[in-house]
Design brief:
- It contains four helices and no strands.
- The chain is an all-alpha fold.
Length: about 100
């Protein structure tokens, strides 16, 4: 447990089951937390990596030309705003 708390070991399925039994939670809760930490760490490593993945063109697709992140940001913001608007109109009780 000390290794997990100090960030030297990951939460395994067995450890998640043990913690869930002792703390009155679910094993899935602990595995989801570990998964979130793993994903965060991977994104941080990728962001600082010199070998970042690039968008690849797909032949025959009118959108096939490669675009930079700066070119895509306005479209991503537009899509996120549309999604948020749709979510509010379809499920006003959902807080976002």
């Amino acid at each position: 447990m000390s290794a997990i708390v100090n960030g030297h070991a990951a939460i395994t399925a067995e450890m998640a089951a043990r913690m869930a039994a002792v703390l009155g939670t679910t094993a899935q809760y602990w595995l989801n937390l570990q998964n979130a930490v793993d994903l965060y760490d991977a994104q941080e490593r990728l962001a600082t990596s010199e070998n970042r993945p690039q968008l690849m063109p797909v032949s025959g697709n009118p959108m096939s030309e490669t675009r930079t992140e700066d070119e895509l940001r306005p479209r991503i913001a537009e899509l996120r705003a549309a999604r948020a608007s749709f979510t509010r109109s379809r499920a006003p009780w959902v807080l976002r």
